[in-house]
Structures are given as structure tokens and as C-alpha cells.
Amino acid sequence: MALYRIQEHTNKVAPKLVVRRQQMSQLNSQIQGACFDLDNAIKTVDQMKTAQSSLERIKKILNGENCEF
């Protein structure tokens, strides 16, 4: 009788666990995508910081000011 109850419980819970696992997999994919986007945004901001001096020199050249080379 006990083994029957265990089997009954397993058959009842297993489909819910499968659905939950699929949901967790989808959420994991979304989180990984968000992390990828965030890493790219951070790299872009860092590159913009390093490009600032070059952009200022270009601005001076376009404005006809003396530039330091």
C-alpha cells in the first residue's frame, strides 16, 4: 500500500516539476541575455570614456583651432 501511495504522489507531482523546469530554463535564458546586454553596455561606456580625448581633438580640428599632435 505504501509503494502505491509513493507511485501515486510521483505521478501527481512529476508533470508539475517538468513545467517548472521549463519555466526555469526560459528564465535562465532571459537572464543570460540581460547579462550579455549589460556587459556590452558597460564595455561601450568604457570605450566612450577612452575615446573622449580623440573626439575633443577632432572637434578642435573641425572648429579650426590649433591642435596638439
UniProtKB/TrEMBL annotation:
<protein>
    <submittedName>
        <fullName>BLOC-1-related complex subunit 7</fullName>
    </submittedName>
</protein>
<dbReference type="InterPro" id="IPR019320">
    <property type="entry name" value="BORCS8"/>
</dbReference>
<dbReference type="GO" id="GO:0005765">
    <property type="term" value="C:lysosomal membrane"/>
</dbReference>
<dbReference type="Pfam" id="PF10167">
    <property type="entry name" value="BORCS8"/>
</dbReference>
<keyword id="KW-0472">Membrane</keyword>
<comment type="similarity">
    <text>Belongs to the BORCS8 family.</text>
</comment>
<keyword id="KW-0458">Lysosome</keyword>
<dbReference type="GO" id="GO:0099078">
    <property type="term" value="C:BORC complex"/>
</dbReference>
